[in-house]
Write a structure and sequence with these properties.
By secondary structure, this protein is of the alpha/beta class. It folds into three domains: 20-257, 3-Layer(aba) Sandwich (Rossmann fold), CATH 3.40.50; 262-453, no CATH class; 464-564. The chain contains 24 helices and ten strands. Strands 2-3-4-1-5 form a five-stranded parallel β-sheet. A five-stranded antiparallel β-sheet has the order 6-7-8-9-10. β7 and β8 (521-527) form a beta hairpin. α13 packs across α14 (326-342), α14 crosses α20 (425-439) and α18 (390-399) packs antiparallel against α19. The protein is elongated, with a radius of gyration of 32 Å. The two termini are 44 Å apart.
Length: 569
């Protein structure tokens, strides 16, 4: 069973975990019955599933009286200059039509010569642009014997040849074709100016009967490609951008990401990744996705792959140390990773203080927040259930200086409140701290505080003295520090060089350097708010003060060490 998810588009309806096929059939019906020529634009940002939908459309059209051609504009743009991409794509549309028809291609002789002529024409186009024509210069594109007329005549001749080619194809009784569908993919992966040039050329040259174009396009790419022509988009000139788009695309279809069956998709993928799906967790995982990365399929796959990696590391380390955070620890890691990917600023704040329910005005000041200003702004907008506690006010205030975070602040607050409700109060801080150690592995952040807190997948200190100094600087309770100091002292006295100690901001572990089993850790000391939670040999004990470490308790801890080591103490 795989522990990662491929980012390749799906190619058949059987792979459709998001259940987009209900839209596929409606589009197929429209394509088969609509008047021609017509262009359908599948609109959506990067990774929303445009290519997958086109593959399913092509599969469904195989049972219809339709010939298809498919070009990937990004592939045609590779190793070509900007002005060479458009003619390469246009030539590809014709050649791929011939190729995709296979044995059903019934046109011969004169038609084959026309295909060669069209190919030669597009292959010979120079890099110059002719204004108000196809966006490309056709000078020298034809043989000398064919290049006697003006450029306008040459363009019209090539367009007529393509139209005649398609007309003959649909008229030939020896094949089943009644119309031709051209799929043009990845326009949003090439330079925006190149994408606009291709769109203009398609409109001028391929606007012919019996032809339907299905384009994978992002409106924002078109906007960027038109900025040289119209300038940056403003309220005053937005109509010009929209008019260009409407001129090219007669039927816009926005990718229905909000209607994707994310529950079904997540259930399948998380099961494949061997995630412990306890009762009720499916809905919880879906809520995390909705409030963080959203329903963009590609972003979701990247998220799941990152989670699979660090969750595997978490499981391996817990097995090595003899600890287990269980399904709740796994869920917390999933949620924290979503925050790290979507809201790096909030993740940095959690790195400083994982127990977000304790954030107050003093904590906010560390991040440059003006507490009085926040209170005044919240009062003006109206306090609600998500801004009535101090920690919520800190989150709200931290998001106001960033337009994206400002638009997502209530999703962030919804998620954090959900975590507080789902996880028991006495476990929230510990699970968050433990998950933080692993979530840092995939963090892409140059923030000094994050770099200082994390090194690899664990927080490390140069010495036990530095560790205790950190606890004092962070105002940990004196009884907790004294208990840890006594644990360390007795461990060194009892086990000497055989003792392996590791410590982080939220726990200390003692291990055996030469265990007789795969498990190295014999004692786990988790730091609670006012006490230590000791776990050893399947037992748990609350150590509220140093005196609790009596001879009887230490004897049991020594026995836990003896079970792992050949050295008898």
């Amino acid at each position: 069973m795989s522990i990662s998810i491929t980012d390749k588009p799906i190619t058949t309806e059987k792979e459709d975990l998001l259940r987009v096929s209900r839209y596929t059939q409606a589009l197929v019906n429209f394509i088969v019955e609509s008047e021609t020529p017509i262009t359908i634009g599948l609109q959506g940002e990067w990774g929303t599933g445009k290519t997958s939908l086109m593959y399913m459309l092509r599969e469904a059209l195989e049972s219809q009286e339709v010939a298809t051609s498919w070009v990937n504009t990004w592939e045609y743009s590779m190793f070509r200059g900007a002005s060479e991409t458009t003619p390469a794509v246009l030539n590809g549309l014709v050649s791929k039509l011939r190729e995709n028809c296979g044995d059903l291609w019934t046109l011969k002789d004169e038609t084959e010569n026309k295909i060669k002529k069209i190919g030669k024409f597009f292959g010979a186009i120079s890099n110059q642009i002719i204004a108000n024509q196809t966006g490309v210069d056709v000078k020298g594109a034809l043989d000398e014997t064919e290049a006697q007329g003006a450029n306008n005549v040459e363009i019209a001749e090539i367009k007529a040849d393509i139209a005649d080619l398609i007309q003959k194809l649909v008229d030939d009784p020896k094949n089943p074709f009644k119309r031709v569908v051209f799929f043009v993919d990845d326009l949003d992966r090439i330079q925006p100016s190149d994408a606009v040039e291709i769109l203009e050329a398609l409109k001028n040259i391929f606007d012919i009967p019996h032809s339907i174009f299905v384009l994978a396009i992002d409106y924002e790419v078109v906007v960027k490609g038109l900025e040289d022509k119209f300038g940056p988009k403003t309220e005053e000139n937005e109509r010009e951008f929209r008019s260009f788009f409407d001129k090219i695309i007669q039927v816009p279809f926005s990718m229905p990401t909000g209607a994707y069956d994310i529950d079904h998709f997540l259930s399948d993928k998380l099961s494949a990744l061997k995630v412990n799906m306890i009762s009720g967790n499916q809905e919880a995982f879906t809520k995390v996705v909705r409030t963080t990365v959203g329903f963009n399929p590609r972003s979701l796959k990247r998220y799941l792959n990152s989670f699979s990696l660090i969750n595997s590391i978490r499981k391996a380390e817990e097995q090595s140390e003899g600890t287990q955070s269980g399904a709740e620890g796994e869920f917390m890691l999933f949620a924290l990773l979503g925050i790290q990917i979507s809201y790096p600023k909030i993740f940095r704040m959690l790195a400083q203080s994982p127990d977000f329910t304790t954030w107050d005005s003093r904590f906010g000041v560390k991040f440059g927040l003006d507490w009085e200003d926040i209170l005044q702004k919240i009062a003006k907008t109206g306090e609600n259930d998500y801004t009535d506690e101090d920690w919520e006010k800190v989150v709200w205030g931290s998001c106001q200086s960033d337009s994206y975070l400002r638009s997502r602040v209530f999703s962030i607050l919804e998620l954090l409140n959900f975590l507080r409700e789902k996880i028991k109060a006495d476990q929230l801080s510990d699970l968050m701290e433990q998950a933080m150690q692993y979530a840092s592995i995939t963090a892409v952040d140059d923030n000094h505080d994050v770099k200082q807190v994390f090194s690899g997948n664990r927080v490390r200190y140069t010495s036990i003295e530095a560790f205790f100094e950190m606890l004092k600087n962070k105002n940990y309770p004196s009884n907790l520090i004294q208990s840890l100091e006594l644990l360390h002292k007795k461990g060194m006295e009892s086990f000497g060089e055989e003792l392996d100690i590791a410590f982080t901001p939220n726990f200390l572990t003692m291990g055996c350097k030469h265990p007789q089993t795969r498990r190295k850790t014999f004692l786990f000391a988790g730091m609670k708010k006012a006490h230590l939670k000791l776990e050893f040999n399947g037992k748990a004990f609350e150590m509220k003060q140093a005196n609790d470490l009596n001879d009887s308790l230490w004897s049991e801890i020594r026995e836990s060490f003896n079970l792992l080591s050949a050295v008898k103490v």
